[in-house]
Amino acid sequence: MGEQVGLAKALLIELDAAFRNPAPEGARVEVQFNPETLKVSYANRQGDQKSAGDQRGNSPRQVIGAGASKLTLSLWFDVNAPGAGGARDVRELTQRVGYFMRPKSPSGRAGRGGRDQPKPPGVRFSWGTFTFDGLMDSLEETLDYFSPDGRPLRSVLSLGLSGQLEIVPPSGGGAVPEASAGPTPGTRPLVQAAEGASLQSLAAAAGGDWQAIAAANGIENPRLLTAGLLIDLDPGRTS
């Protein structure tokens, strides 16, 4: 008889601040039931290409900066199923997933100038050969079975994770070349902009060139960043 192959379980793994590797002593959640499907979507960031002498406002569209990738999936939890660990309320299980939605301070204390504002941790969804790195930006829980004394026993979680897709912008004007993708979408380490942060301050902290970073990420106003914007601070990295 052949060897019995174990069932690979999907994992949610907390990433370090650079979005590169699992965080030391970070959260690690094994799902109770593997998802039935994974939905991955990609979107390019587009803008109008300025043409000299075109007075009609019919500027052609072009791919600029960095696009985005999105992973959506559903997870099931049940206190009466294997892997419940003796939980009596299903929320004892689902709160482990909810951890990735809760903002936390990188250093555990407030920083000067608002640079150390709390933000959700980066998360890696890993299942066999499939991985997706990003931020959990949506979480919806449906409680659909209760005990006689009112305890929720079963739950379905709908998750949404957002990552980034790097697109190389056209240069030199003229015809728009075919967009070329960088590393696997959803796997580039990103930094989330805090409220009131500027690209110059983030680039200085990372030891990078803010102008190159602005161009690679399609940022038009480096002095005023949208809170929560995902930024690649190392656009020259190829792997």
Q: What key attributes describe this structure?
A:
single chain, 239 residues, mainly beta, two-stranded antiparallel sheet, 3 helices, 10% helix
How is this structure best described in words?
- The chain has one domain.
- 10% of the residues lie in helices and 30% in strands.
- It has helices spanning 91-98, 199-206, 210-217; strands at residues 11-14, 28-30, 39-43, 46-48, 61-63, 66-78, 123-127, 130-146, 152-166, 191-192, 230-231.
- Helix 2 crosses helix 3 (210-217).
- Residues 108-114 and 166-187 have low confidence and may be disordered.
Question: What is the strand and helix layout of this fold?
Answer:
Elements: E1 11-14, E2 28-30, E3 39-43, E4 46-48, E5 61-63, E6 66-78, H1 91-98, E7 123-127, E8 130-146, E9 152-166, E10 191-192, H2 199-206, H3 210-217, E11 230-231
Antiparallel strand pairs: 1-2, 1-7, 3-6, 4-5, 6-9, 7-8, 8-9, 10-11
Helix pairs in contact: 2-3
